[in-house]
Amino acid sequence: MRWAKYGLLGANLAMLLVAAIERSAQSATFVHQKRYVMGTVFEIVIYDEDLPKADAAARAALDEVVRLDGVMSNYKPESELSRLNRTAHLHPIRVSRELYDVIEQSIYYSRISGGQFDISVGPVVDLWKAALAGGSLPTTAEQAAALRCVGYKEIELLPPDRIEFHSECMRLDLGAIGKGYAVDRVAEVLKAHGIRRAYIDAGGSTIYAVGAPPGANAWNVQLRDPSGKLVPQIMLMNNSVSTSEQSAPSVLQGEAPGHIVLPQTGKPLQTRYAVSVAAPTATASDALSTTLLLLGPTKGAALAKTLHNVAAIWIDSDGQRTIAGDGVGFQLAGERLPVALPSASGTTMETARKDSNQ
Amino acid sequence: MKQLSLVCALLLGSIALCTPANAKVFFRVAMPFLPPADKTGIQDLVLQWPSQDSFAIAQLRSQGYRVWLQCEAKELTAAVTAAERTKAAGVIIASAPSSGQPTLSEEIRSYMATHKNTAFRVLISGGKQPQMKGRLVVERNGVLQVSSPSTQPWLDTNLAIVRLAQATYPDSVPTIYDFRWEPAEAPAGAWKPDAEDFALAIAESDADRADVIIDFPAPLQKALNEGDQQAWSLWKKVMLYLKFSSQAQKAKTQPVAGLGVIVNEVLASYEPVNLMARHNLAFEVIRPSALTLARLSTWNSVIVFCSLTAEAAAMLRDFAAKGSVVIFVNPHDEFPWHSAAPDRREAHSAAYTIGSGQIVELDEPVIDPENFARDIRRLIGRERSAIALWNSLTTLVTAYRKEDLRDATLYLVNYADQPDNVQVQVRGHFRQVRWESPEVPCCASLPFAERDGFTEFTIPSLRIAARVHLDAEKSSAAH
């Protein structure tokens, strides 16, 4: 496996963990594996005294992501989601527990966000992704046609395992929640293998921490900051953080596409914010980071306050920030935020924005 | 930037009109012991000079290897003498001369003229181990950080330094690149670098059509010498890729590229060119002195990273007027089209409509190469793209064709080492599409479709390397 890395703290790659970790942790061993799947690189770091066990656990967890990609991919024509997209407008389709579960959770986030989060936005997103990839910008007519296919209320869940679309052109895209769902599954697989200290990273945009690294109370994750002024960080232990940000604006052209699209207008979101959301699960942080970016800090903060153990931080390119929610705290450069922050320093990492596949 | 230290010194010289005939893989060894060449599949070995004695060279030559001596530029005279005395195949010069001395190119050409039995290569610095990277990397302060602000997999590739070197060195002075294996510890009983690491390095060299020096780890060398079964199992996998590489087209070829890049100073253009390579923008690099109407006729877009003469600027204006796109990065010159107001002005750029094309000027250096590469792709648009890959973010493609022929060969390298179905779109009409890989003997036919002037096909399960042969219709253009 060319992507597997092993080591002991204090040597070569093992330098990857912070100097702040206590001396007692110096003998802890770790496994680092990565794999390209779901259009990004999934990485897992596991601390365990039993390296072969950790290695097997990481491998099994990444295999699970590959399996889930076969369920949830809208790029693979043979995936379960693609089959659903092709046929669910004709009659109810029986789906796997995972697909039913992730769609059900998606509809929950659609409801609580008043439709800002909407996995049926696929046809519109595809138009703009094509433009991001070098195609021409979609015409008004193309946008209008795609927009007619959008609407999560046209998805009908038929418990326990069937789904039907009430729109002929509906096409679901799990890009705003699928990676988070997979990260949660990775955590479950690792725990089932007896792993107690692990860091799971889906392309930097969605992270889940199992336990804490040796000698620390939590994993210290550095968050995306478009201003470069705030150095936001968060401590994670058995919870998740995700970051969303619109595609970078064009420097050579005027109107630019973007991969995050407003379901109401079918146009790319115009925003200067990056938002990071901490939540008990990666599914929640993944879905909410997109939702709260779309809502913006005012409406988003109102929503975040209604959710248990969810906290969000919006930062714009000038360094203006809004923080809302509870359960965990964000730490900013030069500021002390005592909100539920573990006291000890931990391993520092950084999240990045979610991005399109191009 | 350390990696560019020598590349930056590669400035003057005429232009490489074609890419090298084919890539050769050299292995740099520390010890003069290796099983015979017919067992390892290796042809060329590199020894560091002057640390090796004549015995080592003789020993390896007796095993069937061609031996090259790698030396510093200041040691060139002595190394050439030693190479001739020991019947070494050639000399690889590892660094540029200091200022005030003749340029390396001139010095080497002088040696080439007087030492006809000795081959020469200039070693380009700045190479890196080809690999797909994750986000978790080592920082100097020991903090685990991410490597990139994007979720797109990051590929370390040598295509940019190869193309820049091919442009800045004369065709008559062959170049070669190398890299150091990045430290990574393997589980007990496993080798690192492993077979896939070697295979990727070989495949990349093949795809870039550039010679490469790969370090032969001493423990592996020793294990092969001792007949270690596990070592030989690894090496047999590597040999598959060596064989595949050696079967590549031997004729001189031209890159299939619709985008020309004009550079005069490597440092200012390296990062943008690297990201353009990463985004599979099929491009050629030239120096301004090589800009001709004939060269422009093969492109539909140009990016300019340097000052141009008034004559060259006029040539590019006429080029744009015919429907092409020209992008100037941080220009300091006054151009004739400045007499009119731009048709569009953004915060850091201005666009001028010229005839049926446009000229875009970015009034600052490239600050975000990733975003710049995406912008370029959008600006030149699908209709001007020579090649595009879909749903394969870990594969890079290069394409070549023989002079005066419309047939083309694509070289694909998947940096993720996980089989991927790669969807390919190539401009032009072709009679037949065939492919081969180390795992698929030459050649299997691929079904293809034609759409909007492009030929589209899917390579099934691309693991690390593949070549796709596009046989042209006799009466249609492949480019």
List keywords for this structure.
heterodimer, A: 358 residues, alpha+beta, 16 strands, B: 479 residues, alpha/beta, TIM Barrel, Rossmann fold, Immunoglobulin-like, 3 domains, 7-stranded parallel beta barrel, 28 strands, disordered N terminus
Describe the structure.
The complex is a heterodimer of chains A (358) and B (479). Helices cover 29% and strands 22% of the residues of chain A. Chain A is α+β, with helices and mostly antiparallel strands. In chain A, a hairpin with a 2-residue loop joins β2 and β3 (40-47). Chain B folds into 3 domains: 2-135 and 146-246, TIM Barrel, CATH 3.20.20; 257-384, Class I glutamine amidotransferase (GATase) domain (Rossmann fold, 3-Layer(aba) Sandwich), CATH 3.40.50; 387-472, Immunoglobulin-like (Sandwich), CATH 2.60.40.1180. With 479 residues, chain B is an alpha/beta fold. In chain B, the strands form 6 sheets. Chain B has a 7-stranded parallel beta barrel with strand order 1-2-3-4-5-10-11, surrounded by 5 helices. A 7-stranded mixed β-sheet of chain B has the order 14-13-15-16-19-18-17. Chain B is built from 12 helices and 28 strands. In chain B, a hairpin with a 2-residue loop joins β18 (349-354) and β19 (357-362). The chains are: A alpha+beta (358), B alpha/beta (479).
Radius of gyration of chain A: 20 Å
**Would you tell me which CATH topology of the domain at 80-165 in chain A applies?**
T-fold
Question: End-to-end distance of chain A, in Å?
Answer: 26 Å
Strand residues, percent of chain A = 15-25%
The proportion of residues forming helix of chain B, as a percent range, comes to: 25-40%
Beta strands of chain A, count:
16
What string gives the helices and strands of chain A in order?
EEEHHEHHHEEHEEEEEEHEEEE
Please tell me what the overall shape of chain B is. Answer: globular
**Terminal-residue CA separation of chain B:** 36 Å
- Uncertain regions of chain A: pLDDT < 50 for 5+ in a row? 1-27, 338-348
Query: What class do helices, strands and sheet pairing of chain A give?
Result: alpha+beta
Low-pLDDT segments, ≥5 res of chain B: 1-17, 97-102, 138-143, 145-150
CATH structural fold name of the largest domain in chain B: TIM Barrel
CATH architecture annotation of the domain at 80-165 in chain A: Orthogonal Bundle
